[in-house]
Amino acid sequence: MAEQAGQLDGIVMIPPRVAPLEELFPEAEQWQHYFSSAFIQPMAFLKTVLEAQVFPKPFKIVMLSGLSSVSVLPQYGATNAMRLAWLGQSKCMAVTLAEQGVRVNTVSPGAVLTDSYKQKLHKRASTREISFEQQLAIETENIPTGRYSTPEDVAQAVVALLGPLSDQITGQNFVMDGGFFRGY
């Protein structure tokens, strides 16, 4: 928070993650639930904050997305759709709100070595009867940097985008996956 009470310096939006779905075409009610909880409600919150104008200029908004914002993950159809909605809205906000001193950027990490992801790796390693380190090496061999991001890596990127670095950066999606995504 800023020194002035009631004033925000920036916002980090972490949209709810939609669980993997087996069906390619969920029922309409399921889509409505996903869009309501993972997009419409968070956007309503952000709209309320922006309308209150309790922020300095420049004001920074960082959206946390994921690799499916730039590369399809077949088993995550609903997640792909949500992340693209967030990315599109972020870009629109960046262009529309720039004159008001608002900067909007997105961080899209690939796999992040969180405690829960480590548990999944341990489980896969156990199933294959190999060590955790061997499983990790297998899964990261196609990443040019040779490793997954850490929560600290993601936090550093977000902090940088909340700071003066992004005074002249808006509307960008920073893919943070160690070079795994090779698109342009």
Structure description:
By secondary structure, the chain is α/β, with parallel strands linked by helices. Helix content is 44%, strand content 12%. It is built from 5 helices and 4 strands. It has helices at 28-52, 77-97, 115-128, 132-140, 151-162; strands at residues 10-13, 59-64, 102-109, 173-176. The protein has a 4-stranded parallel sheet with strand order 1-2-3-4, sandwiched between helices. α1 links the parallel β1 (10-13) and β2 (59-64). α1 (28-52) runs parallel beside α2 and α3 (115-128) crosses α4. The radius of gyration is 18 Å and the shape is globular. The termini are far apart. The model is unreliable at 1-5 (pLDDT under 50).
Distance between the termini: 37 Å
Helix content: 40-55%
How many individual helices?
5
Shape: globular
Which regions contain 5 or more consecutive residues with pLDDT less than 50? 1-5
Summarize the biggest pleated sheet. Answer: 4 strands, parallel
Percent strand? 5-15%
Order of strands in the sheet with most strands: 1-2-3-4
* Helix and strand pattern: EHEHEHHHE
Mean pLDDT, all residues: 89
Structural class: alpha/beta
Task: Count the beta strands.
Answer: 4
Radius of gyration: 18 Å
Considering the chains and any ligands shown, give keywords for the structure:
disordered N terminus, 4-stranded parallel β-sheet, alpha/beta, 184 residues, 5 helices, 4 strands
